[in-house]
Design goal:
single chain, 353 residues, alpha/beta, four-stranded antiparallel beta sheet, four-stranded parallel beta sheet, 11 helices, 16% strand
């Protein structure tokens, strides 16, 4: 560099880390979820931009959007960021979530790509790729938040799952699957789904199957079970989380005994992220007992591997993209360093702040 083409930062007493990765975000939830259906397509796009820029500001330099709406605003946002039209994190998008016809999902048609059988699955997967998505998101079990839906029961058949995996593989990419139930998690892992989202009730048998594998992993989202977060929900939703969360914690504590590729996800609307930006770190530490080093790896290199981006991001290494954050203190010694906004954020070599 010639003189004047760069600036220096004093990092005395601070730690330089790779930019963080959130591998499970819904950018259309830049407004409260209940407002989704009354927003215009253009309005949702600006909600996505607001959310994405907030995440970049708090040190999340790569975001994987895990469920768009039918107008594909996150694809447009990804392209605008790449082209330099707007600033934002590095963005991977899955398009509209592919969901079988099932009780509870009829309430949200703008964020569901309905399917029934392998032929319809093939059609929906191809439609997502026609709209330039990076990966495919399918819904394998019921949802914690969807009324009338049972989170433990598998709702996709094996031939439907295999069809999605096959078409995605031909495009050089992969399938991620929303999956809470024990039996369903095992099925997804064995049928070639790359990332199992939530993995709430993962069994010891499935943990043994995943032990040491690099072609499949899990993306827990445990911050959504924290007292601070569930206190914002209605009484029915709070009760559901309170009943299930100790079982979730037990399952994910057990998974930690194995060498499972475990990534980082949050699944928060923007309003929760703004109020409790680092609750995922706090919950994984206090409720699951994960080590400080492993927490950092989950939010960086592990997630980069799951996203098939580890040659570009996730570690500090010559030749990789310069996505970096600077934190005040040593998070290996004290993980609470990660509970506050980083001092500096750098994305692709550019000082964001």
């Amino acid at each position: 560099f010639a003189e004047g083409e760069y600036e220096t930062l004093d990092l005395n007493g601070k730690t330089l880390l790779p930019g963080l990765i959130d591998a499970h975000v819904h950018l259309h939830m830049g407004k409260e979820y209940v407002g989704l259906m009354i927003k215009t397509a253009c309005g949702r796009a600006f909600d996505c931009l607001k959310y994405a820029q907030y995440l970049l500001d708090i040190g999340i330099t790569t975001v994987r959007d895990m469920g768009d709406d039918v107008n594909f605003p996150t694809v447009a946002l990804r392209n605008a960021i790449r082209e330099g039209v707007v600033k934002g994190p590095r963005l991977k998008t899955s398009g509209v979530t592919i969901i079988p016809y099932d009780n509870g999902f009829q309430a949200d048609p703008d964020i569901c790509a309905y399917t029934c059988g392998p032929v319809e699955m093939r059609k929906q997967v191809r439609y997502m790729f026609m709209n330039d998505v990076d990966l495919i998101k399918i819904y394998g079990t019921g949802s914690m938040m969807t009324q009338g839906s049972e989170p433990g029961i598998r709702i996709l058949e094996e031939d439907e799952i295999s069809e999605a995996v096959k078409i995605a593989a031909r495009k050089g990419t992969y399938v991620a699957c929303h999956c809470h139930g024990a039996e369903a998690i095992g099925v997804m892992a064995r049928l070639g789904v790359r990332t199992i989202e939530h993995a709430s009730f993962i069994t010891d048998e499935t943990c043994r199957y995943l032990d040491g594998r690099t072609d499949v992993g899990i993306v827990p989202t445990v911050g959504i079970t924290a007292d601070e977060v569930i206190s914002r929900k209605n009484s029915e939703e709070r009760e559901r989380y309170e009943i299930l969360r100790e079982k979730i914690y037990a399952s994910l504590k057990n998974a930690y005994r194995y060498n499972i590729l475990m990534g980082w996800g949050t699944d928060f609307p923007l309003s929760v992220y703004e109020k409790y930006p680092y609750i995922e770190f706090k919950t994984r530490k206090e409720k699951l007992g994960y080590s400080n080093l492993d927490l950092l790896k989950q939010a960086t290199i592990n997630s980069a591997r799951l996203l098939m981006m580890d040659q570009e991001i996730g570690t500090l290494k010559e030749g990789k993209l310069a996505d970096l954050i600077v934190v005040d203190g040593d998070p290996i010694e004290d993980i609470t360093v990660m509970y506050t906004r980083p001092d500096h954020v750098i994305k692709d070599g550019e000082l964001i702040r």
